Amino acid sequence: MENKNILFRSLPKVDEILQKEKIEEALNYIPRDIVLESIREVIEDIRKNIQSSTITKASIEERIQRIDYEIIEKAKMKIQPKLRKVINGTGTIIHTNLGRSLISREIMERVVEIASEYSNLEYDLEEGRRGSRYSHIEDIICRITGAEAALVVNNNASAVMLILSTLAKNKEVIVSRGELVEIGGSFRVPEVMEQSGGKLVDVGTTNKTHLWDYEKAIGEDTSVLLKVHTSNYRIVGFTESVSIEELVKLGNQRGIPVVEDIGSGVLIDLSKYGLSYEPTVQESINRGVDIVSFSGDKLLGGPQAGIIVGKKDLIDKMKRNQLTRAIRVDKMTIAALELILREYLDEDKAIRNIPTLRMLTIQLEEIGIKAEKLYNLIIKNVDKLSVEIVDDFSQVGGGSLPLEQIPTKVLSIKSEDFSVNLLEESLRTFRTPIITRINNNNLLIDLRTVEEKDFDIIVEGIIWAINNCRSV
Ligand SMILES: *Cc1c(COP(=O)(O)O)cnc(C)c1O
C-alpha cells in the first residue's frame, strides 16, 4: 500500500510533462490536442499498472522515467495515416483486401502531375471549347480491344449497373442460373440487376444451361442476353453452358443485344506464359458480343475502374444516361489508365512494366533468387529462428483464375519460443505491416509478391516482431 502511494505520487502532472524538452519538440509537428490526449492515456495506463500491482515497482519506475518517449510514440501512432503501405507476403497477386493491382512509380509520377496541375480534362485544346473527359482514353481502348466505342466508369460493378439500367430498365434480362454469382461479397448479379431496374429471368439449372433454355425464355420484354464470367468459382463435372458464339448467334437472330461481364478483363493471352487460358476482351469483341464490361484493377493491372466496350449506338445511349455522371471516373484514374493501356501496345512492355503482369509471369528461378537473398539477410541478422526456403503455390486472386496454382518459393519460418500465430500477428502490426500466410504451423512469406526494395523493412519487422513476441 505504502509502495503504491509512493508510486502514485511520483507520477508527473500533465503540466510538468508538457514542459519536458522532448514533448515541447514534439509539439512542433504533432497537434496539441493529440499530445494532451496521449499524455492522459499514458498516465491512466500507468495508474492502472500501479493499482493492479501486476507489474514490479522497478518497471513502473522505469516507465515513468521514460514517459515522454512513450507519449510521443503514442501521439505519432495517432497522426499516422490510417491507410498505408503494407508488404504483401501472401503470394496472392490481385489481393482485393490489399488494394488489388499496383501502379508503377513512373506512371504515378505522371498522375501526380495531372492531379497537381490544371489539365485539359474536359477541354478540347484544338477547338478551344468544352471537351469530354472520356475522349482521352476511348481511342486507345478501342485500338487495343477492337471495339467500336468505349466508356470508363468507377468500377465494373457500376459498369454492369449502367449497362443494365440503360438497356434493360423495366425489361427482362436472361441469365443462366449457373452464372448468378456473388463476387467479393458485395457484387451479386441478382441484386445488381434489381438495382438497375432490370427484371431477372434465370434459365437452366446450376450445372447445365442449354441454348433452348434461352430460346424458350425470350419474349416480347426481353432486352438483353447476359453472360457473366463465373470469375471466382468453377462448377466441374457434369456441366454444360452455352458458348458466347451460340449466344451471339441467337441474339442476332432475335435482335437482342448480348452483354458479357467478363470480370477480370485480360488483354493478353496468358496461356503463352504457362497460365490457364482465360478469355480476352478482344476475343469477346471478335465473336460479336455487343457489350463487354471488365475491371480496371484486376488482370489489366490498372487503377480501379469499370471499362465498357462494344457497339457505338449502345455505348452512346449509356453516355447519355444520367447514371454515368454519378459513377464517372476521376482525372487521376483517367491519367493512370491511359498510360497503362499504352503499355499494352507492346505486349513485352506490358509484361515488364505492369506490376500485376510481371508478378504473374515472373520465372520461378527469379523468385528463387529473391528467396535466397531474403533468406541470407534474415539468417545474418536474426538468430534463434528456423528459416527454410520451400516450394509452394501462389494464387492470382481478385476472382481471377480461381483454380490456378502457380509454383512459387516461400520462406517458411517458425520459432521454438513462441507460436506462429503470435508471430503472424506481430508482423501484421509492425510499423510497415507485413502480411503473411500460415500453413502447417509455419509462417510463410511468398516471394512472388514481395519486392527486393522491401527486404530491409522485412528484416527489421522480423526483429521487431520477435522482440514483441518475447515480451508478451
Ligand atoms: C470482379 C467482378 C465484378 C466486380 O468488379 P469491380 O471492378 O470490383 O466492381 C463484377 N463481375 C465479375 C464477373 C467480376 O469478376
Description:
This protein is an alpha/beta fold and 472 residues long. It has three domains: 2-79, no CATH class; 87-98 and 360-471, Aspartate Aminotransferase, domain 1 (Alpha-Beta Complex), CATH 3.90.1150.180; 105-353, Type I PLP-dependent aspartate aminotransferase-like (Major domain) (Aspartate Aminotransferase, domain 2, 3-Layer(aba) Sandwich). It has 21 helices and 18 strands. It has helices at residues 2-10, 14-18, 21-26, 32-52, 57-65, 67-79, 105-116, 135-145, 156-167, 189-196, 211-217, 244-254, 281-286, 312-320, 322-326, 331-343, 347-353, 355-361, 364-381, 420-428, 455-471, and strands at residues 87-88, 92-94, 123-124, 129-130, 149-153, 172-176, 182-183, 187-188, 199-203, 222-228, 258-263, 291-295, 306-310, 386-397, 406-414, 434-435, 437-439, 442-446. The strands form five sheets. It has a seven-stranded mixed β-sheet, sandwiched between helices. It has a five-stranded mixed β-sheet with strand order 2-14-15-18-17. Helix 17 packs across helix 18 (355-361). The longest helix is centred in the N-terminal third of the chain and has 21 residues, at 32-52. It is elongated, with a radius of gyration of 28 Å. The protein starts with a helix and ends with a helix. 37% of the residues are buried. The mean pLDDT is 94. It binds pyridoxal-5'-phosphate (PLP). Pyridoxal-5'-phosphate binds at residues 155-157, 183-184, 187, 228-229, 231, 261, 263-264, 295, 306, 399.
